Amino acid sequence: MPVTEEARSLLKSAKSIAVLTGAGISAESGIPTFRGAAGLWKQFRPEELATPEAFARDPQTVWEWYHWRRKLIAQAKPNAGHQALARLEQVAPSFTLITQNVDGLHQAAGSKEVLELHGSIWKLRCTQCGCEWVDRNTSESGQLVYCQCGALARPGVVWFGESLPPGVWQSAEQAIKSCDLLLVAGTSAVVYPAAGLVPLASSSGAKVIEINIEPSPMSGIVNVQLTGRAGEILPNLIQESSLANL
Ligand code: BJW
Ligand code: ZN
């Protein structure tokens, strides 16, 4: 479905824009999504890899999976969808990019302020002293990773049953309550509390545009549904002529 006039007009008149992205925006960069036919959860069991209990039980298996994903992501480049959002940030009067992704591709595309709801695969955190650091090393596949204090480190991501980083979540809620347009791109919108940001935007009076290759549970409440790839629809929507009034 082509980008509609209604979507262009919503973007042109928006004063404060928020964006919520999910794994679908990185699919065209070659990073597998979680759900769907070719999703990670078809091949791997989330309860064995993405919960604190799984890590406590078998840190070796969990680390192996994250080392594999870190290698995959390290080879990926941002696509036209990431780039279009980075451009929008430069010209919008007020703009907040909220992502569920841990891959860092928005930042690689040039986005400056990114609220990472589910953390970052490039951050590590000590299970004992709690210190966090950035590590982009992808060479130690199969190895457990340790903190300087000697304790086991874990990926700096948010697993099922864990709270989202409180400051990041509050900033995201604030941006959603004060935006007049929310773009939702490439998320199945089934994981909470992130998915709850979509109805929060609607109930706060914002218009919502959804960009996805298929409908999501949120499709019924959005104002405009654009069906197709984020890497094609976003650059088309965010073309310079649509930004004229921003
Ligand atoms: C394209 C495309 C293209 C493809 N273009 N589109 C309320 C109700 C029910 C359950 C809960 C609830 N509140 C909390 C829960 C529990 C749980 C939850 O939501 N479970 C449901 C799944 C049932 N939530 C939590 O546990 C969260 N924490 C929490 O609530 O804390 C409070 C608490 C504390 C203590 C006890 C209980 C509660 C934490 C959630 C953490 C999620 N973690 C993961 C892994 C991150 C680390 C890692 O990467 O390894 O985050 S799971 C995975 O799902 C990942 C993603 O960020 C997240 C969302 O997935 P996303 O991004 O939507 O991707 P997909 O694959 O699902 O969808 C891709 C979409 O793209 C599809 O729609 C495609 O069609 C589309 N697409 N190609 C455009 N080219
Ligand atoms: Zn430590």
What would you say this structure looks like, in words?
This protein is 36% helix and 19% strand. It is of the alpha/beta class and 246 residues long. The protein starts with a helix and ends in a 9-residue tail after the last helix. The model has no long low-confidence stretch (mean pLDDT 94). It binds ligand BJW and zinc ion. Ligand BJW is lined by residues 22-24, 27-28, 33-36, 39, 50, 100, 102, 118, 157-163, 186-188, 190-193, 211-214, 216, 229-231.
Gross morphology = elongated
Cofactors, ions, other ligands: ligand BJW, zinc ion
Name the poorly predicted regions.
none
| Percent of residues in helices | 25-40%
Radius of gyration, CA atoms, in whole angstroms: 18 Å
Order of helices and strands: HEHHHHHHEHEEEEHEHEEH
Strand order of the largest sheet: 3-2-1-7-8-9
How much beta, percentage-wise? Answer: 15-25%
- Please state the oligomeric state of the protein chains shown: single chain
Output the structural class.
alpha/beta
Total count of helical runs of at least 4 residues: 11
